[in-house]
Structure formats: C-alpha cells, structure tokens
Automatic annotation (TrEMBL):
Required for accurate and efficient protein synthesis under certain stress conditions. May act as a fidelity factor of the translation reaction, by catalyzing a one-codon backward translocation of tRNAs on improperly translocated ribosomes. Back-translocation proceeds from a post-translocation (POST) complex to a pre-translocation (PRE) complex, thus giving elongation factor G a second chance to translocate the tRNAs correctly. Binds to ribosomes in a GTP-dependent manner. Its main location: membrane. This is Elongation factor 4. Belongs to the TRAFAC class translation factor GTPase superfamily. Classic translation factor GTPase family. LepA subfamily. InterPro entries: EF-4, EFG_II, EFG_III/V, EFG_V-like, G_TR_CS, LepA_C_sf, LepA_CTD, LepA_IV. PROSITE patterns: G_TR_1, G_TR_2. Transmembrane segments: none annotated. It comes from Microbacterium capsulatum. It is a peripheral membrane protein.
Length: 597
C-alpha cells in the first residue's frame, strides 16, 4: 500500500470506557471479522485480560475502508491502558499519526486518559475526540463534549458521538480517521528503519514482533539487525494482521505489520528497538528506546516448598513473553526458598502472580512490595542499592534516598479534602490543583513511590467511592528519614516481615505486625515475646503466653495404638511448621500475617 493510502491510529481510553467494544465494532463494520466469527473483545487474547476487562498487550489490526471509490488501509494499534505500562503506551503512540480520544459519555475524562493524551500530543498526533456509549440513559454528551473541546482546543460540535455497542456513529468515525489523520511519511529509498512497538511470545511460532515501518522496506528471507544489540536474524515471515496474520511480500514506508525470526524470547526483540537491514544498516536508530526498569520488588514463595522447581520453570516461561519481569532466587527463614522479583508496578505484580497461580496452578505467597532504595554507607561512603529490606546495611546508614513519583489525581471536587489528607499522610507534597471543569479537580502531588505501593490506590478508591483516578510517573529520588523495622520472635529476626519505612511510621508498622503475629501464632510451651526493632532498639512488644499442650495427656492408660496414632497425627501437623529459633510457627500464620487477613 502506498503511504498516501495508509492511516495509522490508536485509541486512547480509560479502562472500561469501551475501547475493546469499539475496536470490535470497527472490525465488524470494515468486514475484517465476519459477524459469525465475532466474539466479544476479539483483540483481547489472554483469558486473564478478558476476565478482568483490561488490555495488557497491544496488537495491530489492518482494516480496509473506502471513501469515494478509494480504498485506504487503516492500521489500528491497540495500546495498554494502565499506569504500569507507560513505556509500552509511548511506543504504540510513536507508531501512529493519529489517536482517537475515547471518553465514556457518562463518565468524562480520567487521569490515565489525560496522561496518555499528553503523551500523544508530545508525539504530535492528530487527536480525534469521541464520546462513547451515547446509548446509555446516563450519558451527558453535551457536558462532556464541552469538557473535551476545552481540553484539546476545538468546538463541542466537532466531538463525535458514538456507541461501540450499537454501532451508531462508527462509520462516521472511520471516515474521519481517513480525512483528518495525516498519511505517514518516510524515505522509501533509505535503509530500512522499523520500530518495534510490541513483541509477543507465541508457543508455536516463537516471538511475534509488531513493527511500524518508518523508512525503507523489509522483505521475507532477508537478514535483519536489531539496532540496540547488533544481533542479526533471518526474517522467516513478514506480513499484516487482519486480524489473523497474513504473510506478505514485505512491508514498506508507513506500513504496520508483524514479523517472525524464530527467536524464542521477547528480550531478543525489544519494544522500542529499531530493526534495520543487516546488509545495508541505517546509520541511526529511531529515537525513544529504553530498557524497561522494574520499580517494585517482592518475594514470591511457593506455599508448598516442594513446588519450588515448578515455580522456577513457570517464571522462566513467563519471562519469554514479558521482557520487564526480573527474578533471582532468594531464601527466607519464614518462607523457605523462593524468588525476588522485580515488576514495573503493582498491577504488573498482580498480573504475574495471578498468571502463576492460574496458568501454572501454583499456590504462592508474596511479601510486601518494596521499592529501590539508595543507601550511602556511613563508613565507606559507597552507594548500596537495596531492593530487599534484608539487604539493608543496618548500623552503617549515612543517608537513604527513595524513588519519588509525580502523581495526578482526578476527582470530583467534594472529595478534595479527604484526598488531600490521604496524600499528606503519605508524605505527599502538593504541586498544584486545577479545576478541570465545574465539578472535577486535578490534584498533583510529588510522593514517595514506597507510599503508593502500600495500598494507596485502594485507599484512594474507597475514600472517593471509586470516583478518583490516578496516574503517576517517576520523578527522581529524594533523601528521607527511613529506617528498617525488624520483627523478632523470641529474639530471632523473621526476615519476611522486615520493612523499610519512614521513621514516623516505624512504631505503627511495628505494633501492627507484632499484634497480628500474636493473634496468629499458636501458644508454645514457653512464653514467646514478639518484638519490633529498629537496629538494636525495641520499639514495640507483644507476648504469646505459654501453654502446656501434651497430646498424650489425653490418653490415660495403656492404649498404645491410640497413642501412636496421635503421635503420628501430631507429626503430620508439624510438616508445615517453620522453626524460628525454638519457636514453632505454622506457615499459615506467616502467610496470613503477610496478606493482612
Ligand atoms: P479495557 O479493555 O479494560 O481498557 O476496557 P475497554 O475500554 O476496552 O472497555 P470494554 O470495551 O471492555 O467495555 C467496558 C464495558 O462497557 C463493557 O461492559 C461494555 O459492554 C460496555 N460498553 C462498551 N461500549 C459501550 C457502549 O457503546 N454502550 C454501552 N451501553 N456500553 C458499552
């Protein structure tokens, strides 16, 4: 297809505003998916995505659309819609010339949509504002059309009104994509430059890489080069998705498609990287490539220790499809053998643990999420990177800095007071407040990421009846008065409960954990103190009183078989016990304490 007949676009929308439904309708109206094959949310491949109604991996689909006898190729690039995947979103946007800004006509715009809209504007995309779900009785198109028009600078009457559900307005939308979005431009004679905007692991075909051609041409069987690493591969197949993969004779300027080289690991085909011809490589890679950096760390342990090998295998498999997942083996007194894992954010963590349990049938426990702390030691002055509280160089702390994020919270004005209180209690510094419309306010805070990973989102939702939305981006790091709080059972440290917290919150954390454990750990034959400590200083204490529990006392006399049975039973119960010094703790107690049940 010549560039003049190509339009590349994506859909920017908040979760649940109807992106998948609209995409489905477009596939149907353009005829690429027959009515018979249509199933809800055609593009969301992963079960877990479908169930939770979120889009994790982006994909591209090519749709034909005719205007005035001329056929255009519309390439729709699907973008993930959550804060953790900002980098992937930015690469999808970079592959487009235009974006549909899709907003629920009964909800209005949300923080995440706003963040992605700014990203799109930075990338100079043409924005087509669209209100969706106008079939809903609660829809207020007039009100939100004005909001959108004010936001992007246009007239309310230019805001399209559609329903992905009924199909109303979708044909107009397709026309406008062709009319308003600029055709791609590039140098057809130059060495090839293709940007990878997604890379998906497929059990049968290996890695399927989605690219947007910028310059030149890529053809089947030729050798290609990944510009970030210099690695060469043979192009086994290249083509377009519509939406099933259709091999083609190659891709040229402005085209969007997929390619297969036989690599088995998405790390060999990285989002944001530039692909060029191996024989005639381009001089410069396309701008914007970075390696994904994990921001949140957590220990993942099998509840049954004998599942360790399976957990390792499962992680090895997930890594093939997820370039941002990191892990290394770790051991814990309380939890045994497991892995320290790095994630892009909390949702990423949740997705991985859920996939581990669902796709691999593993029962797991995760430790409280932690962020990356930089500690400058007082003795040697070196900088130590700490992603696990147990590595904290206790007693040698010169200074500690923690990662900060700029957060944007969009909320109805009635909740401003409550949310400001919440943000202040999480050590946030107010950066600004803006009335977005008459009822809606945007609050901007600089906040430690460590405070956000600790149930901030849940608190925000519950304090605003679900009306607030949140977005954040890294904003460097900042020194803070942080301490490590240890939890001791009879003087022995229980590593899984150590946590790095602000000094002002150390006491609250210590008492909460000590109390939880007191309630969960069964009495022993001796008294067991539970203490919370900062270094050698005890800041909180609870005591489990002693009990004399002799199972044999119940059997008077000589019924030896009964005695044996009881002993046997007791032994079985002990299997799942962990020893912390002299103290026997059922693993369930640790697990319950960690999960806050
Ligand atoms: P993510 O995949 O999580 O980003 O969600 P999404 O934006 O793709 O939303 P999805 O298409 O899954 O729609 C969310 C909900 O809104 C579903 O229950 C849809 O049935 C409903 N919905 C989508 N479009 C419309 C519409 O035009 N009208 C009505 N009434 N409901 C709609």
């Amino acid at each position: 297809t010549p560039p003049a007949q190509i339009r590349n676009f994506c859909i920017i929308a908040h979760i649940d505003h109807g992106k998948s439904t609209l995409a489905d309708r477009m596939l149907q109206i353009t005829g690429v998916v027959s009515d018979r094959d249509m199933r809800a949310q055609y593009l969301d491949r992963m079960d877990i995505e479908r169930e939770r109604g979120i889009t994790i991996k982006s994909q591209a689909v090519r749709m034909p659309w005719q205007i005035g006898g001329e056929t255009f190729a519309l390439n729709m690039i699907d973008t993930p819609g959550h804060v953790d995947f900002t980098y992937e979103v930015s690469r999808s946007l970079a592959a487009c010339e235009g974006a549909i800004l899709l907003v629920d006509a009964a909800q209005g715009i949300e923080a995440q949509t706003l963040a992605n809209l700014y990203l799109a504007l930075e990338n100079d995309l043409t924005i087509i504002p669209v209100l969706n779900k106008i079939d809903l009785p609660a829809a207020e198109p007039e009100k939100y059309a004005k909001e959108l028009a004010d936001l992007i600078g246009g007239r309310p009457e230019d805001v399209l009104r559609v329903s992905g559900k009924t199909g109303v307005g979708v044909e107009d939308l397709l026309d406008r994509l062709v009319q308003e979005i600029p055709a791609p431009v590039g140098d057809a004679e130059a060495p090839a430059r293709a940007m990878i905007f997604d890379s998906v692991y497929d059990a049968y075909r290996g890695v399927v890489t989605y690219v947007r051609m910028v310059d030149g041409k890529l053809s089947p069987r030729e050798r290609i080069q990944m510009m970030s690493t210099g690695a060469n591969h043979e192009l086994l197949e290249i083509g377009v998705s519509s939406p099933e993969p259709v091999p083609s004779k190659g891709l040229g300027v402005g085209e969007v498609g997929y390619l297969i080289t036989g690599v088995k690991d998405v790390r060999q085909s990285k989002v944001g990287d530039t692909i060029t011809n191996a024989r005639k490589p381009a001089a410069d890679a396309l701008a914007g490539y970075t390696d994904p950096k994990p921001m949140v760390f957590s220990g993942i342990y099998p509840i049954d220790g004998s599942d360790y090998a399976e957990l390792r295998e499962a992680l090895d498999k997930l890594k093939l499809s997820d370039a941002s997942l990191q892990y290394e083996p770790e051991t814990s007194v309380a939890l045994g053998f497991g892995f320290r894992c790095g994630f892009l954010g909390l949702l990423h963590l949740e997705i991985i643990t859920e996939r581990l349990s669902r796709e691999f049938g593993l029962d797991l426990i995760t430790t409280a999420p932690s962020v990356i702390y930089q500690v400058v030691t007082s003795d040697t002055g070196e900088t130590v990177t700490v992603t696990n509280p147990s590595e904290y160089p206790d007693g040698r702390i010169g200074s500690v800095s923690e990662p900060m994020v700029k957060t944007a919270i969009l909320l109805p004005k009635d909740y401003v007071g409550t949310v400001m209180e919440l943000c202040q209690s999480r050590r946030g510094t107010l950066l600004g407040m803006e009335y977005f419309s008459e009822e809606r306010v945007e609050l901007r805070y600089n906040m430690p990421l460590g405070e956000i990973v600790f149930d901030f989102f849940d608190q925000l939702k519950s304090k605003t009846q679900g009306y607030a939305s949140l977005d954040y981006e890294p904003s460097g790091s900042q020194e803070a008065d942080l301490v490590k709080v240890d939890i001791l059972l009879q003087g022995e440290k229980v590593d899984a409960f150590s946590s790095i917290v602000h000094r002002d919150k150390a006491y609250a954390y210590g008492t909460m954990m000590a109390e939880r454990l007191r309630k969960l750990i069964p009495r022993q034959q001796f008294e067991v103190p539970i203490q919370a400590a900062i270094g050698a200083r005890i800041i909180a204490r609870e005591t489990i009183r002693a009990i004399r529990k002799d199972v044999l006392a119940k059997c008077y006399g000589g019924d030896i078989t009964r005695k044996r049975k009881l002993l046997e039973k007791q032994k079985e119960g002990k299997k799942r016990m962990k020893m912390v010094g002299r103290v026997e703790v059922p693993q369930e107690a640790f697990i319950a304490a960690l999960s806050g049940d």
